[in-house]
Amino acid sequence: MRPRALVSTxxxxxxxxxxxxxRAADIIVLAALTWISCAQANPMGIWMSPVDxxxxxxxxxxxxxxxxxxxxxxxxxxxxxxxQHLITVTGAFALTGAALAAILWVARAPNFMLEAxxxxxxxxxxLSYALHIxxxxxxxxxxxSGRLTPNIVxxxxxxxxERIIKSALERxxxxxxxxxxxxRGRAPDQIAGVPVLGDTSDLVGHRMMPxxxxxxxxxxxxxxxxxxxxxxxxxxxxxEVTLLMDVGxxxxxxxxxxxxxxxxxxxxxxxxxPDRAAAKRLQDLAFAAAGLVLAAPVMALIALAIRLDSPGPxxxxxxxxxxxxxxxxxxxxxSMSHAPKEDRGARQxxxxxxxxxxxxxxxxxxxxxxxPQIWNVxxxxxxxxxxxxxxxxxxxxxxxxxxxxxxxxxxHRMKPGLTGWAAIKGSRGPVDTPESVRVRVALDIEYIxxxxxxxxxxxxxxxxxCLVGDRQVAR
Length: 475
What we know:
By secondary structure, the protein is of the alpha/beta class. Helix content is 47%, strand content 13%. The two termini are 45 Å apart.
């Protein structure tokens, strides 16, 4: 049930998005082929040719695109072999050819038109075969790498859990990483070959959670008290938590998501909107690429100043928590005296900290030390706007900051950002009191709930004035 390699949820691809990308590529290739074929069949040019001389080509292209979708040629089922997939593509062409032949027969098309359409059809078939062989191989590689198959864990060693596991084994559309049970003493060691790894407390702190897309509770839906207890225990997770609806509840399946052909109801966590996520990623790539070009001369001067100011490396790397509690390596310009061991983030920086160098004081005050994080944005580990990344071991006083607020992990339901809603609202720098932690988390969660393109744009525009007007916050 486990993939060959565990891939973080941040790197997971949605099958629907990949299929849409393949469909778009097919449309572009067919449109180009149709245009060229029309131009060759009509010496006067496409725009000067009569409608009946170009209409069959475009009608055939539209029919083919429709039939490829209608025959599920973009489904790429896990157990579908290459030959089976090409047979599906052939079926789409057969339907298109039959419809096109009927149109040409009714229209009494001349022989030269029939020959041109036949050439277009055959060439389109060859190109589609080549494209779909490439798509099939790409999907197989993505599945083997674990990027296309979502990972789940199950809570509840029940008959429902066995149903999910058997369905997943048959369909190969999800990977079950393990089973947890709140009543571990009564649970077996494995369910349908998947090991029972512990109870719900073991699940919350398990190292596999950054690779888990969804937690599925399989306790019978009539055990309301038990479900409420489990949901409360799992509320601290940033992962999506869902409840498997019993067979008797299938009448409500139209308003639920589905997995392994079974209906699920969301209890907690943030369900990702793929369109919004794609728009945010495009926004990050566009602005970050432009920012990197504009900031390159400044970054070169900062690197030179750091090298001349104090011994040690130019860049500083530190592990931080990103989306879904995934640990990422964040880049910054070094602003403090170089130490033999990497600072793990347990000691937060304070105002007038004696570790800060002369150049470091300036670049921290202006936040120029964070410019290298543009690279983290381009890699997809961070976003331009989002909750600031904290160290996994960061402490507020003598207590780990994550233990001070029950909803602390909720800020990891979105990628961390170079700037954010909390930053422009005054919550910048260290969180050295329990109250400052609560304020930071509340602002981060508010942003996650409100996130939009226009809000991100507003935050980016307000970041510079906020930094220029702030002289006291230690960053």
